[in-house]
Amino acid sequence: MQTQIAPRDFTPGAGLPGDRRARIAARQAFVELKLTYLQALQDVGGADWLRGQVRSAEEPVDLWLLRAPVFAALEGADGERRSRRQLLRRGLDSMFPDLEPVSAFAAF
Questions:
Q1: Are 89 and 37 in contact, with CB atoms under 8 Å apart?
Q2: C-alpha span between 97 and 100 (Å, rounded)
Q3: What is the pLDDT of residues 91-104, one digit of tens each?
Q4: What's the average model confidence in pLDDT over 37-42?
Q5: Is pLDDT above 60 for 107?
Q6: pTM score, whole prediction
Q7: Which has the closest alpha carbon to 99: 60, 41, 71?
Q8: Beta carbons of 13 and 20 less than 8 angstroms apart
Q9: d(CA 5, CA 70)
Q10: What SS3 class is residue 89?
Q11: To 5 degrees, how large is the angle CA 95–CA 44–CA 39?
């Protein structure tokens, strides 16, 4: 008895219209997060290398891996740096919402 295997379609752009819209939305979210990183690093001294890494990022995970060095570059108690860290956290939360720590509080 032979098992038939369904052919796979590797044609770029193939798929249902909903798939295409989902890919476009994911790409737009990635670009927005990239712009958020660049906005947070704007005018930060010594962050040229980080800005270059953000510009060359090709996937959301690339930005995720840069979060620690970017937060380190944004260290400081002044209000401007704090607001940039908050901006970056909101951007990361929008792209990676399931990565929030589990809370002890539960909804009833």
A1: no
A2: 7
A3: 999 888 876 565 65
A4: 95
A5: no
A6: 0.74
A7: 60
A8: yes
A9: 47
A10: helix
A11: 35
